[in-house]
Design goal:
401 residues, 13% strand, four-stranded parallel beta sheet, binds iron/sulfur cluster, alpha/beta
């Protein structure tokens, strides 16, 4: 059976769900890797591996969703909660540009005290100051949160954000797109599987490109991982709007859910089956930030054709105990040692050029930055201009604390 499925894939055939599960559960790991690598080579025959220089900025950690796998969020009223000020975000953009980057990946908690107008003003201000800088911002659950708070439909929210400069949408918050799993992870109310996919389909119809993700290794079965991939494939077959797929394993430290982290082999097998099922996705990223540089590099033999982002800053995975860091020099070294040519790209996977550090000196980065320095409890000055919804924040905005 496994050899028949391998032959089917080699002749360009498409896996159905039962076949994908059979391969995922029973194919020897080297064969699974070889099949995924063959598909990578068919789609990217020039042996180029890409990466992007951008910065992961989490504008707030205050969140009412309370997913039980998340170590990043703080409840409303927490002394550890923060909202970044516009000037702080501008400083992060300046640092990103200095490192050769041209985009922020901007995501955050579901903060009830930041209305849609706050996002519009932020996006407008960024675009006024940095007209060609890109905003890859707000995962589907954040868009749904804004839609519910503003009582506007998802397409209306997206239209308003596009008007002020939203360029593309990151695929965060997908976890596993199966409602049984989402209920167990306490993330069903932030977005059901249909709602997450619905936001992406709307975004694609409005002309936005987006990414797709999967966080595995919590409570789901292997069959549910496969179901997740097929739900993504259905939308991609309809819209073609996903640029890339990224998967990473659940990071259990400091979370309510707890448990163990998936192994490296589990990661590589999951990556490989994703490449094989998602045959209508051009790009599959390696997740070095959760797996480390060495497994990230091995991913290039298991279907990945992209090393993701130089990232510069990371807060969410670090809160759950992982803290790998690679700057551009290190990412390029990993790509080239694996036998590929390294090229810089943008979110649309257009090639921007060769590694920037070969043209000019860029500062080395041996540790990822954080949203805020420890102990910095300053309040963003703009927030007083917007109506708060929570009692704690209403009081804080009146008294300045
Ligand atoms: S994963 Fe996102 S939505 Fe869920 S609790 Fe964390 S910050 Fe909130």
């Amino acid at each position: 059976m496994i050899q028949q499925l391998a032959a089917k894939l080699r002749s360009g055939g498409r896996l159905d769900r039962a076949e994908a599960l059979e391969l995922y559960l029973h194919a020897p790991t080297p064969l699974l890797g070889q099949l995924a690598d063959d598909m990578r080579a068919r789609k990217h025959p020039d042996r180029t591996v890409t990466y992007i220089i951008d910065r992961n900025v989490n504008y707030t950690n205050v969140c009412v969703a309370r997913c039980n796998f998340c170590a990043f969020y703080r409840p409303v009223g927490s002394t550890e909660g923060y909202v970044l000020g516009f000037e702080e975000i501008f400083r992060k953009i300046d640092e990103t540009i200095a490192l050769g980057g041209g985009q922020l990946l901007l995501q955050g908690g579901h903060n009830p005290d930041l209305p849609l107008e706050w996002y519009e003003d932020l996006f407008r201000a960024v675009k006024q100051r940095y007209p060609s800088f890109r905003l890859h911002a707000l995962s589907p659950p954040e868009v749904l949160h804004l839609s519910r708070m503003s009582k506007l439909t998802v397409p209306q929210v997206l239209d308003r954000l596009i008007d002020v400069g939203l360029d593309s949408i990151p695929g965060g918050g997908a976890e596993i797109l199966v409602d049984r799993v989402r209920k167990l992870l306490n993330c069903y109310s932030k977005a059901s599987a249909d709602e997450w996919l619905g936001v992406m389909a709307h975004a694609h119809r409005l002309g936005l490109r987006t990414t797709a993700t999967m966080m595995y290794g919590t409570v789901e079965t292997a069959d549910e991982r496969i179901e997740h991939l097929f739900r993504l494939r259905e939308v991609q077959d309809e819209t073609g709007g996903f640029t890339a797929f990224i998967t990473w394993s659940y990071q259990p430290e400091h979370t309510e859910l707890g448990g163990d982290e998936a192994t490296g082999i589990d990661y590589l097998r999951t990556l490989a089956i994703a490449r094989l099922v998602l045959d209508s996705f051009e790009n599959v990223q390696a997740s070095w930030v959760t797996q480390g540089g060495k497994v990230g590099q091995l991913s290039l033999a298991f279907g990945a054709n992209d090393m993701g982002s130089v990232m510069i800053e990371e807060n969410v995975v670090r809160a759950a105990g992982a803290s790998y860091c690679m700057d551009e020099i290190e990412i390029v070294r990993n790509i080239e040692d694996a036998g590929f040519a390294a090229k810089r790209r943008n979110m649309h996977y257009e090639i921007l050029g060769d590694p920037i550090f070969r043209d000019r000196a860029v500062p080395r980065m041996l540790e990822l930055a954080v949203a805020r320095a420890d102990g910095d409890t300053s309040r963003a000055p703009e927030v007083v201009n917007y109506p708060a919804r929570s009692a704690a924040e209403k009081k804080a905005r009146l008294t300045g604390y």
